[in-house]
Description:
Helices cover about 25% and strands about 30% of the residues. The protein is an alpha/beta fold.
Amino acid sequence: MKVLIIDNYDSFTYNLYQFIGEILTTEKNRGGLADFEILVKRNNQIDFQAIEAMAPDRIIISPGPGSPDDPRYFGVCADVIERLGKTTPLLGVCLGMQGIVHVFGGKVVKAPLPMHGKISPINHNNHSVFNGVPDQLEVMRYHSLIADAATLPDCLEVTATVGALGADKFEQRDQWQTVGEFELMGVKHRDYPIHGIQFHPESFATEGGKELIANFLFA
């Protein structure tokens, strides 16, 4: 398995690298994986053609500073989401999730409160990357921007939230304005193998982080 991490100049990228390495090593030792390679490339030091030629089996778009609508911060990532995400399983983390929403037409806005080093319990749908992960698990957040629920494109479904919107209403968009305050913590494309999570799965303070990443890697 070849895993490509696109680094958006974030201090947590190599924590994510180590985290994924531990998961893949465990799977290899169990005999479920022949071999693996994890590559890290910065978002402005590799172009789309080189990534395409690399033919990764999985792509992870890292957290990072700035906004996904600014190429200075997001580099090649928008192209990768739009073009490779149709066929190659892709996970966007934090800025990476915001980039997924942006690429498909949603807005990214300032969060009501900056969440840097804050822990929150989340609601999730228990499907795809959240399969088998306990509900109301606590996750570590480092962000001051969020995906705007009001402009979430129809091609993206909600997989996780923090706040008043429970999983039973994720698909009932006409009721979102009546449930109370909430923020998007996870999305998934309805047709492509594209997933996004707003929180940091690799943090020691995130419950179920390894199960979540394993779900993405081995689905």
